[in-house]
Write a structure and sequence with these properties.
Length: 358
Amino acid sequence: MTDNQRDVLSACFSLAIILFALFVTQRFLLPLLWAAILCIATWPLYRRVLAALGGQREILAAALVTVLGAIVFMTPLVFGVTQAAHQAPALAQLVANANTEGLAAPAWLARIPFAGHEILEWWNATLGQPHGLAHLLQDSSVGHMQSASEVLKRVGSNVMHRLVDVVFAFVCLFFFYKDGAALQRQTDAIGSHLIGAQRWTLYSLKVPVAVRATVNGLVLVGLAEGVLLGIGYEIAGVPSAVLWAAATGVLAIIPFGAPLAFGAVAAFLLYQGNPAAAIAIAVWGAVVLFIADHFVRPQMIGSATQLPFLAVLLGILGGVETLGLIGLFVGPVVMTLFVTLWHEERRFRGARPATNKA
């Protein structure tokens, strides 16, 4: 057997081990990826805590930062779930009744200029009919919701599934903190061996910056949008304003996701016969969204990663489309590496000496 054949067999053997390991652990890949993102985003905090403890107590520092992260993450989550639990039975029963019995049209629809009569007829022909809501949403599962208990059972099952993932992610986060330095050394050694030390250093330094900038630009700005819009909900007298604000903050993490929340609030106020409050919420939401998505987020993400706004937007939206929520953070990292490769290739071509043609 030649050396080339032996190298090919060795590469195939290594690839088979990697693929089999991914196959065995596929159920936990998503929590592992979330833990890695949280570890990268909060690694400077862990280093500060470790330094404050004398630089020798890795387990204690990892435990403290993990518990702190769990408290910061779980406190608003538990509060939101508690608020939702109080409102869920009534909301589920309202949805079930609207689906099985039909939803009566508000009286003000007929007073809309020009198209009021047509809108009223459409409402009565769709939402006003039994199971009209199910046909409108094009979701057969809605049509089978006959009681609030079935709705709560579905939601509760999904919540428990996600809760297991969250707990496992924080367990992995602890070990990432504790063994992070060794894992980084091993990763650097492998990367340097595969693509060269200079190239690996260039790309490896881009990833933490991109992750931290994306976390700050998406999560912090989204939560700020939720707070600002929540204040507007409270002033407008929206029922369960805190719960709506929490939902807005979560959706606002996704660019252009906040309109789903404040648009639903405005529609609810309009349905209740309060058009002035509905218009005020829509306008206030549009102003907050415009400032956040056109000025704050591009500045926080683009300036740190040196990405143009279009690349940031494509990375975020494309990541969500292909990978789901985790793509919010993976997408900008991929675009950062792509732009780094683009500039590296341009520098390489510029530095390469021109060849003389005969």
